[in-house]
Sequence to fold (453 residues):
Amino acid sequence: MNTPVYDFVNKYKTGGSVRLHMPGHKGMGGLGCEKLDITEIAGADELYDAEGIIAEAEDNTSKLYGSGRTLWSAEGSSQCIRAMLYLAVYGIKNTSGERPVILAARNVHKAFLYGCALLDIHAEWIYPAISSGSICGSPVTADDVAVAIDRLDSMPAAVYITSPDYLGAMADIKGISEACHQRGVMLIVDNAHGAYLNFLPESLHPLSLGADVCSDSAHKTLPVLTGGAYLHISDSAPAGLQERAKQAMAIFGSTSPSYLIMQSLDLCNRYISDGYRERLEKFIEKLDSLRNRLQSYGWQLYPSDPLRLTVSSDAISGHELAERLRRDYNIEAEYADSRFAVLMLTIENQADLGCIDEAFKLIGQDLQGRPALEQGRPLPYPVCPVRMSIREAILSDYEEVSPRKALGRICAAPAVACPPAIPIAVSGEEITALASDWFISCGINKVLVVKQG
Fold:
């Protein structure tokens, strides 16, 4: 597959041009990448008004994913999430003055809340019948979604699902999309952790399963620089979304997108088209064999997407496991909490499988005979009463208090680490005793609350 953006920049790099344009490093510096870091010079096209090489490269990405239209982001899925929310509500005219409503599974990334604040959207939460025991998981079913839609007085602008979640759990997107479309509701999916899912022997990508719009963080599971992401619009999405999508991205994007990131997105097209499906299938077979060996060593494997190992043991916390992996084996996990250590792999980790195997084998041997940790029952997901809109809360004056002193106060900006960037209490919600317990269990010592008086 051709790489028009990468080819243009490399030609410019070697052309000897006098750089009387931005950026200020003028192609020189200690990083080594400066000569490839350009701006919107003649012929370089413009991301938010693409008609040349960027438009051609985005079209290449769209063909690889089978989308109606795919747009690039150089600012991660966070930009795409805000654009998706805009696309969901831009055509809604509510003469009553009420805010447009998005129905969402509760384990949203905090970028969702910031998008709701900017667009003054009201979020109605879909809670699963059974708690996952983790702030990362909100395993809603198609029935949960159907019930949530039917209980509303009027149709929501869209349903919003995060899948895979941070632990790797995958929602029934096919069933959920059917439940939405039977009711005339659009389905939006935050697929930040699943850009590779389209290239499995049987695609598990949200677009293939019926989503109307979705975002992928290409940089999370594909060889793309941090910040590279995709906004996909399905061929079957409501009329006007494909045409409106570029404007939606421009509203929330910098006018100086990184050409380094765009080159990596361009090169990724060629990477995918050049035998990636076959390499991915073979790697997943090896990873499945590793999963079986880890289980034989006594580890518990949480059901997850194919490129993730979500590991736990009754004898060691996820935090301690991640620390042991880092300290003793120079293995850095993606995420850890009190229960799980999460390892995100790609086919670039081919040479690391033996090291991972050895580490878990030896740590497992050390844990033999260790008594199980004293752990209480997993906390249920906190359900907090809404006291003001997300927008009002985020834009309010705030103060910082301890989790216990936050009890009964209104959450301002969400207090949450990244990863996983999933709010415990949503902006505008009253912080309950259960939410306070969640803050403490997640190691959050300070909470931003709306200032009183």
Notes: The two ends are 61 Å apart (CA to CA). The first strand starts at residue 69 and ends at 73.
